[in-house]
Amino acid sequence: MAAGGRQPQIRSEDETCKVCPNVESAYVCRNSEPNVFIVHAERKVITGRVKDKEVKKRKKKILQDIEKKVSALRNTHGGHLLVHLDGHKKGDRFLEYFHEFVDKTLQYLIECGKPYTDSYVCTWLCDLDGFEHFVDVLLITVENTCCISTVNFNTKICSDFEKTNASTWNIVSILAHSPDRANVDASLRGVEPIPHECRNTELKYLPDQGNKSDFDLVDYIWDDLKLKDNLTSLSKVHGGGSYYVGLAENAGTTDGYKNKVITKEGFQITNPDTFKKAITERINADVCVLDYRGTFSQLPPSLIKVETYRVSASPKKYILEVAIGFFGGLVFSDREGPRTYEISEGRIYRMAKEEWQRRITQLPSWKGINTATQEVRDLA
Known about the structure:
Low-confidence stretches: 1-5, 7-13
Number of strands: 19
Order of helices and strands: EHEHHEHHEEEEHEHHEEEEHEEEEEEEHH
Strand content: 15-25%
Number of domains: 2
Oligomer: single chain
Structural class: alpha+beta
């Protein structure tokens, strides 16, 4: 076990594949590069239809393996990633399907503004002397980053239309300006008048869930209905916002005029008080914050208020409102903070959130924005 008791991330190539371990061991033996990892990727999965649920699941698994290993390489002096394209025919040099599949993920891991072509070099392993018989294996050279490559910030930002992934620039800007932004407590907005979606309001419809318990509903709302994403994004909107479950948006056209009508549908809850408590406990269990002092801590209790509104007597249906206050720093939907990786003694580990925060403050963009905002404060 590594220092600090961190658990290593086990290599995740397909255990049934005999090529992957042979390729990796052969390459390590003939190459002086200390950081080498391999990813097993079936070509039929890469080229498969996303509408197929099993194919979609396997695509996601491959990308997660790639982003974990590439981020670890970028965060630890760079290195080489071998990709076994299982099922790729000998002599086929066409790689557009592979790059279409993977390049967006690789691009997202470049936080320093460096061009993609300066960060990654991809070639066929069989083009190297001694590896001619490995005809379905790619070699990607991964350059190290000057600061920190993050897989998932575990915090979202709002536009007037949707919640999107935060960028490194977003993170740096928010943290640099956080001393100037006072927290605002959560405030319930209710359902009268019926709310409409905007930057500080999110509406979700919950179809009938059969015999799901209230606790199962909490899990579904947190993950599938993206309460975790909306909580983090709405906490960045000045004045905070509200997330609702049980309000349906119905699109329609009248005399050529297209619009949406919001209706109170509600969803079944066995015990509203127990349900509200379970929502609050889930938030407190999973969420952490980073304040302007650079300190990670639990979510302030005043930042969240949970309420239910009854809309039907039989069956008992309710609308859920989770009110979120404004937080001057960052709110994360994972207790461990942002997710990214580093290498220690040849193994991949999830980076501690404190180390991630330290590296963020080493970014040139951080130093530039922080200096500029401090000068403005000094003039005030």
